[in-house]
Design a protein that fits this description.
Elements: H1 2-7, E1 16-25, E2 28-38, E3 45-56, E4 62-71, H2 73-88, H3 97-100, H4 110-133, E5 142-144, E6 150-152
Antiparallel strand pairs: 1-2, 2-3, 3-4, 5-6
Amino acid sequence: MYDVVDNVILQLPGAEVLSNTGFNKKGYCGYVVEFSTNDSASGTALRHRFAGRIYRRPSGEQIMFTLWGKSSPDVYEEVAPAFKMMQAGFAYTGPHSDNVFGGDGPSRDWGTMAPLLLVLGLLLILSFRRYRLRPNFAKPKLWRCVCGTWNSEDEDMCRRCAYPKRPEPVR
């Protein structure tokens, strides 16, 4: 939209942007720019209302439709409602409308995503379960004294009560 304003509208003689509004609706986005210019041939002042709608095609490209209304400033207030109605009522109904309107963008098909998320969750749970069942995975390199203190495996006596480390039973 900024390219349209900078490269088209502001290049017209005597161009001055009066208002610039963008919007995003279901299936398309658009903008409305109101501006004034001078006619290049006669120099008379003109007031414009320029609206554009941008649709995304399923293939990823974008297509833009523009609707432009202009009049002299003294009658603009009378014809502005007609410009607004014409621009708000725009709808492409041509033979290729199915190929033009790309919808809301990427589909959020939860019917397909839910089983995929369920499978990923199960794989995650099973991978954690596998670690828990591995013999030395969660076994700490510590031993616990009868007084409740955790001691390093390298120490032969408790650092709190000096009780000797018991040898582990042979299985």
